[in-house]
């Protein structure tokens, strides 16, 4: 039984995240998608909204026998991972530019907790430039989001700015 944590802000979940989860499902029996509660950041969506969207869009992915669930955490990721009895942390790497920061985090996490491995996974090339940050920027400037995020996420973003 192999359990992985897939941590992140998921503000909002993108098609790139879903692609990583599908790929992770080929390697792990269980993946816990762990949303970081970060009181220092002003998010677009609340934790509850992000969690709700993730749970909805996960219904549409290919996961085989893998159990996928959504949770949130505060504090050190490795403490959370230990409490969940996880074997690994999954992180997506899109480009070399991601690697430096991800390597630093992975090595720090390993120093803090040597029993937990970090596994880097590459999303499909189609998503190699997709990030939650750019998705929000494109949305706020009136650009098209089709193909970058699930349709549900795009409609929730529209509802949010229209006060719905
Ligand atoms: O989606 P993001 O914002 O790139 O995710 C970053 C995340 C949540 C993986 C990272 O900020 C994190 O693990 N935060 C928890 C605090 C922690 O453990 N810090 C030390 C790790 S080096």
Morphology: globular
| CATH superfamily (homologous) name | HUPs
CATH architecture: 3-Layer(aba) Sandwich
Biggest β-sheet: count, sense, barrel?
5 strands, parallel
The oligomeric status of these chains comes to single chain
Mean pLDDT: 96
How many individual domains? 1
Write a structural description.
The protein has one domain: Rossmann fold (3-Layer(aba) Sandwich). The protein has helices at 15-24, 47-58, 77-83, 96-112, 132-140, 151-161, and strands at 3-8, 30-36, 67-73, 88-92, 117-121. A 5-stranded parallel β-sheet has the order 3-2-1-4-5, sandwiched between helices. β2 (30-36), α2 (47-58) and β3 form a beta-alpha-beta unit. The mean pLDDT is 96. It is an alpha/beta fold and 164 residues long. Bound molecules: 4'-phosphopantetheine (PNS). Residues 7-9, 36, 76-77, 105, 108-109 line the site of 4'-phosphopantetheine.
Summarize the structure.
This protein has 164 residues and is of the alpha/beta class.
Characteristic key phrases:
164 residues; alpha/beta; Rossmann fold; five-stranded parallel β-sheet; 5 strands; binds 4'-phosphopantetheine
């Amino acid at each position: 039984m192999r359990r992985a944590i897939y941590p992140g802000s998921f503000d909002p979940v993108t098609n790139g995240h879903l692609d990583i989860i599908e790929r992770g499902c080929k390697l792990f029996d269980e993946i816990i998608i762990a949303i970081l509660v970060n009181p220092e950041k002003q998010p677009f969506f609340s934790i509850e909204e992000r969690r709700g969207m993730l749970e909805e869009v996960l219904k549409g992915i290919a996961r085989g026998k893998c159990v996928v669930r959504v949770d949130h955490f505060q504090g050190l990721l490795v403490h959370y991972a230990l409490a969940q009895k996880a074997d690994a942390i999954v992180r997506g790497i899109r480009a070399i530019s991601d690697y430096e920061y991800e390597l630093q985090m992975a090595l720090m996490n390993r120093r803090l907790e040597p029993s937990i491995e970090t596994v880097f996974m590459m999303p499909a090339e189609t998503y190699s430039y997709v990030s939650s940050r750019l998705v929000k920027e494109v949305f706020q400037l009136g650009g098209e989001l089709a193909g970058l995020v699930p349709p549900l996420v795009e409609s929730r973003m529209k509802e949010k700015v229209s006060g719905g």
